[in-house]
Every structure is written in C-alpha cells, then in structure tokens.
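Q&A log
Question type: sequence-to-structure
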Amino acid sequence: MMDINSNGTSSLSQSVKLPIIVKVIGRIVISVLIAAFGFCLAFMSTVGPTIAPEVWAGDLDMLIRLSVLGLGFLTMIAAVIWLVFPMLKWVFTMFKEQF
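Response status: OK
Response body:
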C-alpha cells in the first residue's frame, strides 16, 4: 500500500487516499451534527417557562433542566472525542512508522 518515491520517502497511493479522505470528512460532518445536537440540548434546557411548578415545589423542573444540560454537554464532549481520538491514533501510527 505504501509506495516509495525516488527520493526515498513513502506516500500513499491514489487508491488509498480517497477512502481516507472520505472517512475523515464523514467523521467531521457527523461530529459537527452531533455537537450541534448537543448544543441544542444545552440551549433547550435554559429556555422556556417552568415545566411543572406544582410538582416538588419546582424542584422537578430544575432536575429536568440540569439533566438535559448535562446530556447536551456530554454529547458535545463525546462528539469531539469521537472525532479527535481516532485521528490522533492515526497520526501517531504514521509518525511511528516513519521513525
């Protein structure tokens, strides 16, 4: 899969580059969509009137809002980790193969 150029450096062949590029762009698009959904959840938790003020003296509303806020932030963090970790792993593997 790795071609050796005349100057001794290795490069990926054209047939291998396209699937890698498609995979990276797909990961970026999916991560942005998941992070946008997490942002919407976090934003949604702070908007609107009290959900059920007569239940638990309004504490149920705070529990629901904090749960949705936490879920939104966890979704955004998970999207970033899902995007960055495999790319760092790939870069480390490429770096390790060169030296």
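Response note: The chain has a mean pLDDT of 84.
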